[in-house]
Amino acid sequence: MAPRLHILSPKRNKRLQTGWEGFFPYYAGFPELFARELLQSARLPRGAVILDPWNGSGTTTYVASDLGMTSIGIDLNPVMIIVARARLLPPSEADHLRPLAATILSHAHSAPPTLDSNDALLGWFEPTTAAFIRGIEQNIRRSLVGSMTKSPDGIHLDKISGTAATLYVALFAACRKLVAPFRSSNPTWLRMPKETEARLVAPQITVARFFADNVRGMSAALATKLDADLLIADTPRAGECKINLSDTASMRLDAGSVDFVLTSPPYCTRIDYTAATRIELAVLGPLMSTGARALGKKMIGSTQVPSASIEIDDKWGKTCAHFLEALKKHPSKASGGYYYRTHLDYFDKMSRSIERMSDALKPGGRAILVVQDSYYKDLHNDLPKVISEIGVKHGLNLKRREDFHLRSMSDINPGRRTYARPSGATESVLCFAK
Ligand SMILES: C[S@@+](CC[C@H](N)C(=O)[O-])C[C@H]1O[C@@H](n2cnc3c(N)ncnc32)[C@H](O)[C@@H]1O
User: Fold this and answer.
1) What does the sequence similarity comment in the record state about its family (predicted)?
2) Engineering a disulfide at 188: which of 140, 173, 220, 276 sits with its beta carbon 3.0 to 4.6 angstroms away?
3) pLDDT digits (tens, 9 = 90+) for 203-254
């Protein structure tokens, strides 16, 4: 019999994000401790492969590597590929970061690039500020993103070095700080300035200081990790980890190649995962083969209407079908149109992704999914139940479900004020076996 998993609450706690972790303040499905307890209690055999198909900021791959396990992380957002890659930087690299950053800054100072008139940074910054930021980015790319990562179809982000990824994360954080005036009350949303609004101007010294401060902080946090590692005599060697840029609805994984899945799929709460990383996507502009809007459309949970018409599928299960029928008939504006179509898109992509994930799992393998429910107006979208049914339709058995009540919902769904509905949300940990 498979060992019983130790399941802690998957509730995120900002206060726990300190030290090295503090530099990765991206929306995470669950905390590091949750993943650590779970993976340790699974007592997986040596060489077992762990997969997170929606790896985001890379909590699963980080913890798996720390425990010496082999892992694969997938995400469609290039920003998340870089963030997850940076998080894996070995503490032994701590000393190299600062001299590298100093060289990069001095090159950017002496020769700021001529800016392309379409540069996405111009969305927020005045040309001189944008040019200096682009200069830093270009120098990270030139000095660290070797020819290994370049191919005729662009840059292979999957192969980017941990050091380059870390310097990108330091630049992301500097830009996030600069664009703070455009943050809204929704923490996952950064707005674009209006046509008439002035773009931001920051002197080179300010941009350089923000970047250098981040690099210094990251280097110090890594060095602290190194000290802690040395105290633990039997620290396992980090396992191999692959971070791949891919769309889970069409990803190709070898059948039966994965022992254990630990993941938190995109929620159906209108979180736009690309809007949350707009400024980072602007920094990465020259490395991207798809524009931010096209990328947003491919995301599960996209707020854009799908191009193709989609029909309810039997593989989505009964709960999903009932929910969609009620949503289509809902009297409120745009329910039967825009909202119905974006929900169809969500479940279609989700079902196709779970099918691929299930195919990749070995017989006897396990898949742990952290899923949150939500409301559409007064309609309960019981996503844990829907995902359970989709899993079963694709050959998985639901073995256990643990529910945790959250006081607030990560939700920008309409109707929060107009309709009576319970406060908070339920976050469920679904444990499947194949
Ligand atoms: C809930 S977050 C995962 C959080 C992750 N557990 C962490 O620790 O940060 C969901 C992730 O799914 C990604 N995503 C959305 N649609 C995707 C798709 N079609 N293929 C792959 N990844 C996708 C988003 O970019 C986002 O990073």
Assistant:
1) Belongs to the N(4)/N(6)-methyltransferase family. N(4) subfamily.
2) 276
3) 999 999 999 999 999 999 998 877 666 665 555 556 799 999 999 999 999 9
Q: How far apart (Å, rounded) are the C-alpha atoms in residues 316 and 235? A: 43
List pLDDT tens digits, range 72-105: 999 999 999 999 999 999 888 889 999 999 999 9
Residue 171: what residue type? L
- Whole-number Å distance, alpha carbon 57 to ligand 1 midpoint, is 8
Say how far apart CA 89 and CA 85 lie, in whole Å: 7
Cβ of 61 closer than 6 Å to ligand 1, yes or no, is no
Domain range holding 144?
91-230
- For ligand 1, whether the C-beta of 10 sits within 6 Å is no
pLDDT of residue 410 exceeding 60, the answer is: no
Are 73 and 96 found together in one domain? no
249 and 364 share one domain: yes
Mutation probe of ligand 1 site: the residue of 253, 299, 357 with most atoms within 8 A of C-beta: 299
Judged against a pLDDT cut of 90, whether residue 118 lies above it is answered with yes
